[in-house]
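Dear all,

This email documents one entry for the complex benchmark we are building for the journal club exercise. For each entry we list the sequence lines for every component of the assembly. Then comes the predicted three-dimensional structure of the complex as a token string, followed by one or two observations. Please use this as the template for your own entries, and keep the labels exactly as they appear.
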Amino acid sequence: MAEHASPHHAHAHDAHHEEGWVKKYLWSTDHKIICFQYMFTGMFMALIGGFFSYVFRMQTAFPGVEVPLYGIVSAAEYNSLITSHGTIMIFWVAMPVLVAAFGNYLIPLMIGADDMVFPKINRLSYQVFLLSTIVLLSSFFVDGGAFGGAWTAYPPLSASGAYNNTPLGSSLWVVAVALEFVAFLLGGINFITTAMNSRAPGMKLYDIPIVVWFIVIASILFMASVGPLIAGAVMLFMDQNIGTGFFDPARGGDPVLWQHLFWFFGHPEVYVVLLPALGITAEIITVFSRKKLFGYKTVLNTAIATGVLSFTVWAHHQFIAGIDPRMAHIFTITTLLISVPIAEMMFVYIATLYGGSITLSTPMLWALAFIAEFLIGGVTGIFLGASGADIYFHDTYFVLAHFHYTFFPIAIIGTFAGVTYWFPKMFGKMMNETLGKWHFWLTIIPFNFIFIPLFVLGAAGEHRRIFDYQNFPELAGADFFFLRQMATIALVVMLLAQVIFFLNVFLSLRSGKKAGKNPFNANTLEWQAESPPPHGNFAELPTVYRGPYEYSVPGRKDDYWPQNVPS
Amino acid sequence: MIERWVVQASTYAADIDGVIWLIAVLVGFWFVVAELVFFWLILKFRARDGQRAQYITGEEKKQMRFISWPHYLVLVCDVFIVVGAVRVWVEVKQQLPSEAEAQHVRVVAQQWAWSFVHPGADAKLDTPDDIRTVDELHVQVGQKYIYELESRDVLHDFSVPVFRLKQDAVPGRVITGWFEATKTGTYDIQCAEICGIGHGLMAGRIVIESPEQHAAWIESQSATRLAANLR
């Protein structure tokens, strides 16, 4: 933490030891190191968020039980745990790992640049992010505990300590979220500028790998949507602390205003994290099926269409929130329209497999699982976007299961796909395939056993964020508890299976097979650098002659054709 | 589909279940087709020695057909779903029954209890014979009700799963809506919007009574109040 406590001191200190540990790993401007900073922070937060889910799922399935490693869960703690789980998993796991970590690692390497265009802004981005992390975690140790009004933080509950009983925790929550957005704005500016200005000579717009495009589009979506939410966060903070009444109806405010500001950001945010995961998937399925991506321009256009449409759907979260009922029609139409580009994207990915030569390596399994599982998340969203059906499903476990079938593939499956695929590049060692497959199956199978029961519970009327369902006679039956317990046990199995991943990382780093420059015979530029790439990435900056997906081109001996190899 | 788990006890419950069923059929079809094609391709095109992948750009018209036709079909399905959803929405949320045929009932949410104001024997709210209860709402089967939903503090949500009804309560507003019960019995009322530490305790019950039972209940409540007033 020395790096933001006293920068000048750190500099002076480092001048004596060339490339000391602090300078190399904590005060670095190298985009690859910043990737690792984001990734390790994100994974650390994922462990916290995962542990929280274990604690509150235990309470839901076995109410009143003394949870091993935690203890008795109080109603206030339950609310704090679910709130923090949501906040952490979206803002401190999905965002830093998918957008920031992969964006940082991949953009310069895949476009053939030596680093980001603004390396110091990049470093600042992570430092602000780390600060936001510390602020968020500190809220657990203040009087009253961490904020417990759900990750959506609807006022008036979030706006007044008299209602939420966590006056300090809720302010720290707002500050942490706002700081975090500043961090990603800084990062996003860098991503867009770098991808547009630092491409290798010869790399035209349609020669950019899809994952880079998608991270750039995601950054643009983020920049365009986050403004209203930051404004909302400032208003909420003032309501909490200096007695303004932006969201207080007694003083002329309106609590529903916050919902508009939040979801105007919140819905595009889904696509902000979805796009990098989809991009990672595109890279992996082309390499491991030795196929050209089916309809590169179609993929790009659907992503842009999705991005634009995503700004017009936000009020589908608010159908029954007291908005004018006629507005529901508009948002039902826009929401269902967004199914068209997303379905098309799925079709394109599936079509890419046609005529391929498919190897089911660990990264490929993750990428394919992403498609198979995300489809479930996609189709169940239709129930919620259709106003008439949403009257019943709103705020039930059906919603929860739906978005976990989108966010889990995004944040967890997408991350594992990316990490297992680029691990040889990042660390110069191959990962163990046997352990990788055990980890894959022991994550994917329990994942479905967690959330399919929750779909059923939601359809049966189980509403969200309830500490103890025994208070609701219709939800207290033995079969309901059976499903809750099934989900909870599956969760425990899935969390334990993550040990295999960390074991695999550890063993592979220690004694994995050395990876050459290009172990998977891929085309994109990052595979032309050393593994791991040194500071500055390329011994000689590459020149690009073709698009990224020229696999199995007829008439060539090799079934791949790197972008930088002259014809 | 939903009626397998939760009984239908309002006039519009079957319509909401109907639109859910429509969506389930349409998206279920796409889901099954997509997953089947997906797994079939994975099995069929596994890597074999000496066999190269095909080179398909996916940018020629002939190839694009495989994407564009499903794309139009998805759009057609969307139209059906929008029409179905909007029709139900208009019925449940946009149209109120006429004052002549409906009684009003006031639903007040607060941390962490429901209070209900029933119109009493004269079928009118805000008269001396109103009946106030906590956490228990009494309604008569076959009678249309317009609810006036209020909140005293934070957001709450008046949810009656057997009616398929949900509506947020927003402080500072009176939100109206309607329901008509079709089945007698006692069912759950949930608060479906997180409202603080006691959110999980905010359970109410709705008692749906036959006209005779309902009249008897009003009678008993008036007698209790009379006794209380005399004391």
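Observations: Chain A touches chain B through 99 residues (CB under 8 Å). Chain A has one domain: 28-528.
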